[in-house]
Amino acid sequence: MSSSYVPSPPTEEPVTIPRDVLRLLALVDVSTAGRRVLDELLYLSDPENGTASISQNEMARELGASKPTVNRGFKELRECGLAWSLEDGLYQLHPLLTGGKVAYPMPIPEIQAAEPERFTEQRRARFAAQMANLAATG
């Protein structure tokens, strides 16, 4: 018999992300797996320092995904500058996502966003839907 443990968030306070950052996120071309990993990291993020503590095995169990899929999601987030590993099981989210909070002074990568005109047709439709959702809530 196996058990699974996924850490609870350090607070139940909502995560607030400004509209301009949401628009930037819509321009970052990550897979569904990458976005699910990012969403879970945001959920687990510590509001004091913008870090999230979860192992990749725990993340795989939480998302119901394979470890290679989760690894790919983490790799995409690192490559586009949204999150990176500080140590095993501890991830720093980009300060734009955390209200400027970081664990300690460090070089912050630039977020790699795509130009919408370079999107594939499928990605262009997804971007248009994301922008329509932002407009509808504002």
Automatic annotation (TrEMBL):
Xref: Pfam families: HTH_Crp_2
Top-rank lineage group of the source organism: Bacteria
UniProt xrefs under InterPro entries: HTH_CRP (IPR012318), WH-like_DNA-bd_sf (IPR036388), WH_DNA-bd_sf (IPR036390)
Residues covered by the HTH crp-type domain: 36-82
Name of the protein in question: Winged helix-turn-helix transcriptional regulator
Organism field: Streptomyces pakalii
